[in-house]
Structures are given as C-alpha cells and as structure tokens.
Amino acid sequence: MTDQSASAPLVGTPxxxxxxxxxxxxxxxxxxxxxxxxxxxxxxxxxxLQGKSPTQFFSLTYQAGFxxxxxxxxTLSRTAPLLLAALCVALPARLGLVVIGGEGAxxxxxxxxxxxxxxxxxxxxxxxxxxxxxxxxxxxxxxIGAVGALRYYRGVNETIASLLMAYIAIAxxxxxxxxxxxxxxxxxxxxxxxxxxxxxxxxxxxxEVHWGLAFGILxxxxxxxxxxxxxxxxxxxxxxxxxxxxxxxxxxxGRLIIGxxxxxxxxxxxxxxxxxxxxxxxxxxxxASGYGxxxxxxxxxARHNPLAIIPVAILLAGFEASSGLIQRRMxxxxxxxxxxxxxxFVSILMSDTLYGRFKIFAPERWKSA
Amino acid sequence: xxxxxxxxxxPLAILGGAIRVSTPFLFVSLGEVLTERSGRINLGLEGTxxxxxxxxxxxxxxxxSSWLGVLAAAxxxxxxxxxxxxxxSLPRVNDIAVGIAMMILGMGLAFYFxxxxxxxxxxxxxxxxxxxxxxxxxxxxxxxxxxxxxxGAVLAFAMWWMLRTTRIGLIIxxxxxxxxxxxxxxxxxxxxxxxxxAAGGAFAGVGGAYxxxxxxxxxxxxxxSGQGLMAVALVIFARWNPIACFGAALLFGGAGAxxxxxxxxxxxxxxxxxxxxxxxxxxxxxxxTSSPSRAMTGAPGELSITK
Lengths: 369, 307
What we know:
heterodimer; B: mainly alpha; two-stranded antiparallel ribbon; 2 strands; 68% helix
C-alpha cells in the first residue's frame, strides 16, 4: 500500500518525461497563438467587408512597426509603458483579481513625477530623478493598492472599483494640471512646468529608445521571478485558487492581496514617470492615452505570464505605432487598431474553453486510447 | 436669465439635470438587472452604450426618423448582448473578462463606423413640456422631459412586476439563483441566460441612443463617460430591484448634473473635481453596500461578481 502510493503518480499530475512536459508547455503557447491568428483572421474578414485589403494592412503594419530601424525605435518606445501597464494586470491576476484601472495609476504617477520635478528643478538629476520615480511609484502603488485593500476588507469588486478610480484619477489630473500645478506659460495645452534637461530621462546608448524599455523588461524579469520562484508567488496562487483554504492554512491573504495590487500599481506609476520624464517633458492630459487599457489585453494574451508579456507588448506596440501610417495610406479611421484589439481580445478569451480538450497536450492521456 | 428664484435655481437645475442625465443610467441598469437576475454579468454594456449611441445617431440621420434610430440602437445592443451571452455559455470562459473585451470591441466598432457622423446633424427625440404652467424659464427648462425618460420609468415598474409575478420572471429568477434547480425544473439555463443578456444589451443600446439623440444630443467619441460601467455598480446599489434602479439612476444623474449646474451659475472653481462626483458617489456606494463576509441580500445566487 505505502509502496504503491509512493511510486504511483498523483492523480492529475503524472510524469511522462521530457516529451510530456514539452507537450504540457506547448498548450499554453499554441492555444493563445492560434487565438491570436483567429482574431487576425476575423479582423481580415472585417476589412474585406469594408472593401479594404488585409494584406495591405498587415504589410503596412509590418513596415511601420517592424520594417526599419526607425520603426523599431518607434515601436520599442511605446513598448515601455505597455510592459509596466500589463504587469499591473498580471500581478493581481495571480490572486484571481481582475484589475483593469491601471490607466489611473499611470496618470497619477505621471502627475506626481511632474510635480516632484518642479519642486526639485534646482537639484541635479542623480538626486531628482530617483525621487521623481519613487513619488510616481508611491502614488501608483497607493492608488491600486487601495483597490486591493477595498477588495480584502470590504469585499468591493476590484474590476469596477479600479475602473471607477481610473475615471477619478483622470478628473484629478485635469484639476491639478488646469489649476494648482498649471504652468502659466502653457497656453493651449495646460501642463505642469517643463522639466529642465538634467531631469529628463535619456535614451539607451546607441538604441535611441528611452530607458523606460530597459526598466520595463527588468520589471518583467523580476515579476517572473517573484511569481514563479518565490514562496510569495506560490502563496499568492494558493490564495487565488481558494481564499478560504489559504486563510485556513495561515497564509497572510490580506497582505498578499494588498502587496500584489500595490506592486502592480507602483509599476504602472513608473510607466507614468517615464511618460513624463522621457516622452512628454511635463505632466499633461496626454498621459491618459490608453496604455492602461492596451495593457489589459496584453496581460490576458500573455496569460498573465510576465515573460510572455515582453513579446506580446512589442507586437501590440508595433500595431499602435503603425496606426498613423495605416490611417493615411488606407484611409481608415484611427479606431481601426481598437477594432483589431477587440477581435483579438474576444478570440483569446474564447480560447479559454479549449484548454484540456486536446489529447496531444495531455501526456497522461496518450496511452489510454 | 434674470429671475426672482434666487438660490432656488440650483436645486431646480439639479432636478432638471438629474432627469436629463439619468435616462442612460436607467436604461443600462434595467438591462443589467435583467441580465444579472439570470445569473450572468455583462461589463460590456459600456461598449454597447457607445455603439447604440453611434448606431442610433447614424440611422436617425440616414432615415430622418429618430425613432428608427432608437430601434437600430436596440437591435445593435441586442446583437452585442447575444454575442456576449453565447461566448459566456462556453465552459470555463470568464464573463467579467469577456465583458471587458466586448467593451473594447463595442467602442472600437462605434468609433470606426461613427467617424462620418461626427459632423452631420440628426433629428432629436421629442420631449414633453411639463412646465407649461409656469412663467419662469428655469422651471420650464427643468420640466422639459424626454419621452424616453418616461418610457424608462414605465419599464422599471413593468420589469419589477414581471420579475415578481409572471412566469417568465420566475424562470429568470430560478435560473439566476441556481443552475441545478433550473435544470431540475426542466429549464435550459444557458438559453435563458443568453436571451436575458441579449435583452439587456438592447436596453443599453437604447440608453446610448438617448445620449446621441437627446442629451447631449450629438455623436462624438467622448459621448459616454463610463455611464455603462457605473450602471453595473448602480444595480448592486439598487439590490437588483428595477424600481430601486429608477431612484438610483435619478441620484446618479443628479451627481452628474452637479458640475454643469455649478458652472452655469458661474462657479467654475474645481470644475474637474465636480466632474468626478458621479464616480466618487458610485465608488462610495459600492464601498458602503459591499461586505467581505456575507453574501449580498437580494443577489442572484449564480452571479459571479458577488461570490
């Protein structure tokens, strides 16, 4: 009895050697990829119905997003905030939370960075820049961490709360930028005072892409280690699976929820810092440019895996970077990218139903037929 | 604008504003009540609302009839609801996430097809002057009530009655409370949920048509500022009761009218903060009515958002 139970595999987790493990992993790559292609196919049919050529659309996207060194620079500059925005969705998702208000943390993080920059404008960059980044991360972390706290202590649905707070954040930004923080010299587009050159974040040498990309990728790597290789990541997954059981096991569920949401919010706040310090040069309404919402799609496409977020974010950044050229060349509205994102998102979520359906990905069922 | 009303202008303007602003809240929340009572949640109604606003405006412009526009908005909304319902009927698909995806798709399609209709002017929906008896201009303005508001109010009572006393209402409630019990009664839960979701989408589409055809009364990409989403919170606040939805919609509408009202009498300080009032109110209501431990009273048992 004891011998047998020790050697027999546990139900549901049999080992079939290297090939079996590859098959298991393949499912989580092949299915999203197939769903992505399905989304592209539906979008192509949509374009054909409009009398537009999908081949032209995708070849233009390739040219403008990935064709030349210049288009790569454009794409990678947009990748930076998307990586951080996607982590803001992926980290709480570890606990089963659907947080979709990362836009609010980006916007307020940007305002905090801009305001800190004004206060510290006499200081040297080495001192000021980290302080600006920290204030952006603090605000972002508090903002989304509050969503986690509301969820844990009051049972408030995090999806609705985070999105409502994104609207509040944008109103708050408009108030601050139009009022107390407004630079009188900004006429048509109310902004905070422009950051002096030493307080601007520059480009990665020889890349002509700002440093946000490096920090975004680093954040993805660290988030992957946190999720996959630490006990906190493991405890978070247990809590996400069954909160009551986790509490019975003595796991600090409240701290995990607030910690993971706050960390996600801090990273989204950091995205706001880079938007201000590396792209716009001051905080203004262009902070609310929808990166937070594209981040939701990226996180779901990547199945909330931080490493997978990197290629997916590059892909979607390329589509967004090519949007202008597609508008001009194909006479399509700027919302075309949004339509594409919608089709891809729906297709990805529908593919959830296919997991475990195909025998080829399930090694334990190979011999039974 | 000289009048002897004095400070009475403010509550009057807020009342009038509440009636004007509340109609989309009312329709979306009634649709959401129907969907949620059948045990499913549709967060995509924000996208449906925007699509309804575009479709209603475009059809009203092309046909010259605002009522055909409303009909088109309802049909478009029903289609979105039907798609949401069918996708959510697949096993292991998360209805909250699908709602977010449908929100993005609805907005994308509305902005895509709505581009040519930003400039043209479509016919307005008719409204009834309940203020004919008054000489005061503000009273007349406040009591100019749109027909859709009245239809929405009647629908709220009709839906309350339907859910409470009719066979269809009973079927929807059973499906929403327990899939197993519904199956035991020989009902088909997925079919009933999908139909309820489609009907809920139609309501949200009509709410959108009100936005573009009456107030603010034109089509542009910023026409909805989260009303579709706030309606989901409003339904929780109203405890899944259609009549309570009517009251809650008026309350949210009043909060939404606060900023414009104060601006119209010359208070523009903190305009953007007043603009945030409906969201702050919604969040406050959510915090006050949620609970970490007990299930919410009146919540359908199968509803994923309350589990």
